[in-house]
Amino acid sequence: MITNSHAAFNPKLIKDKLKTGGYFISQQVGALNNYSLSHFFDSDYVPAYPDNTLLKTVADFQNLGFEILLAKEAQPSMTFFDIGAIIYYVSIIPWEFPDFSVDHSLLN
What we know:
Blueprint: E1 2-5, H1 11-17, E2 24-27, H2 35-41, H3 54-63, H4 83-91, H5 102-105
Parallel strand pairs: 1-2
InterPro entries: 23S_rRNA_MeTrnsfrase_RlmA
């Protein structure tokens, strides 16, 4: 069994490392994660990894002969109760909020 939570992976490498009958279990964040919030701060925002979708990942694994037992996708909503929480949140994931600054981004 190989598990992965949020880290990038290569399906071919997973196939090479996994023993026959083994399982690969992963939890990922897709290309559209936080899209509306990112777009709010930057109207020209483009996801850093636009091909990182469930559909593409499933296809990549199926093309290598994997049987997909479960594949789910969610787009949960988030609620912030103060501006400090938003600023903290966007500052810890710079790949989704590139070049974020309070002075520039909050003037929008």
